[in-house]
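Holo prediction — NAP.
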Amino acid sequence: MKVFVTGATGFVGRNFLEWLLRNQPDVSVTCLVRDVHKAQAQWPIAPQNVQWLAGDLLEPDSYRAALSGVNAVFHAAALVSLKNGPEFYRMNTEATRNLVAALGEGKDLQRLVFVSSISAVDRPMHEPAVDLLDEDFAPHPNTDYGKSKLLAEEVVSYSGLPYTILRPAYIYGPHPRLNSSMDRLIRDISAQTPYTRFPFPGQASGIHAQDLAAMMWLAAQHPQAENEAFFVSNPQPIPIVEAFAHIASALNVPYRPLERAPEHIRRAQHRWYHRQPDHLVLRILFENFFACNPAKWYRATGFQPTFDYSAGLNDTVRWYQAHGLL
Ligand SMILES: NC(=O)c1ccc[n+]([C@@H]2O[C@H](COP(=O)([O-])OP(=O)(O)OC[C@H]3O[C@@H](n4cnc5c(N)ncnc54)[C@H](OP(=O)(O)O)[C@@H]3O)[C@@H](O)[C@H]2O)c1
């Protein structure tokens, strides 16, 4: 089997490649990378069945020929951040359009797996975020990042190619993107920054990057996943304070959330929202803004994650410690 991977030098793609080499050692893998030296530095012992192809999604001539005879494409490259700007449309939508066009009719292609995001669906800013997002929600992305991912989803789903779209929320695990919100959270809890003691009432969904990698592979194989989009996370969202507690316990730092009456929490929320009404992070902390119901995925595939939240966050902290990052 021949597979083509984008984003292999990033957080998700690198975890996917590790999972693939461990679990599917017979596949032949081409990774499109912008910087071959970076890839080689990440893999000092070159895996036998991996070829680094120097190129850029924005320059389809750099990789078109390598798509010939490919059976599965795992597209994880992107510009990722909950922000705005024209570059998101270039790096996410145009890059995906180029990839789809370069695949042509994809004669040998069994599946194009596109790693999208919960942010492609999102929620209206001025409605309370109570229900868990699922595939029946009308998309309402709030950022250019989310809008560019939704447009990329449309490119994939109208491509005529067999596809699966996966929409993770939070992702944790080895090789994190430094300065991502998960990265900052781990550092803030490690430093016992005061806000981390506030008893935020929100819930969020997440998945360990190695479980996401297994989901990406399964998405490429499973007949029930063909031409479908799925939210992918652990089966249930986790209360934010519980996630903070798991991280603190893994870090071996004390964690004592402040005890506050619901009325006090509502007043604090109101005060903070009043200052920054469209602040995504506040909405994530106080509501179920980044929380989804991935039941469709579990029904379709029967997947069993390896890591629950406690084990996954613990593994993430261990990785930071082992790499001297805390
Ligand atoms: N991380 C999360 O928490 C999260 C949550 C939900 C969804 N996602 C989705 O997961 C996917 C992967 O995210 P990530 O966290 O792994 O991001 P990341 O760590 O920033 O990695 C992005 C990857 O894309 C590559 N890339 C960017 N532009 C490219 C281009 N024009 N041509 C070729 N390669 C290009 C980067 O290459 P360089 O190494 O050269 O920069 C890097 O390998 C994205 O689709 C994102 O939307 C992520």
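READOUT: The mean pLDDT is 95.
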